[in-house]
Specification:
Length: about 180
Amino acid sequence: MSTAEVRERPWVVRRWPAVAGVAMAAFAGIGISSGAEVAAIVTASGFVYLGSAALQRRKAAWPVFAISFVVVGLGSNVPGINATWWMVALAAALIVYGVTRGALRPSWGVPLQAVALAVCAAAALVAADANQTLAGVVVAAGLFAHTAWDIYHHRTQRVVVRSMAEFCAVLDTLLAVIVLAVTFA
């Protein structure tokens, strides 16, 4: 498809990942009273990238996102389920799978994404047990940091497909703003 053909398509069709990111941020932000309530989404953002890197398929980002969506949903609605710990456990299995398939190279793949997931999960775990203000600031900071991560990966076309990076950048940014608004309202 030529560039001219792509430009002829309606904006909403060309920018569907951004539109989906807006919708997901609105959905995730409904009724929250603390950043701690959406802390697992910070973990999910790292989990999606790690999963895609471990599977060595950029297109795997969307199925891995679907898994994170289910895990976060269960963590939000079923008492006793901590979505962050479940995603860390799933990530460990993905790392083992990836390493056995030679995914230690390139260094921006599994090695870097594993570090990023560890940082995201640590932020989510801190926020989950923090007071409302600290939780909001930590979650918003994690989401804003991941927005930069998304933009970098969108530009370099590494690890995840561009549609996921665009979706995630919009989701992370808007959800961070919602969290800050709730925190300081």
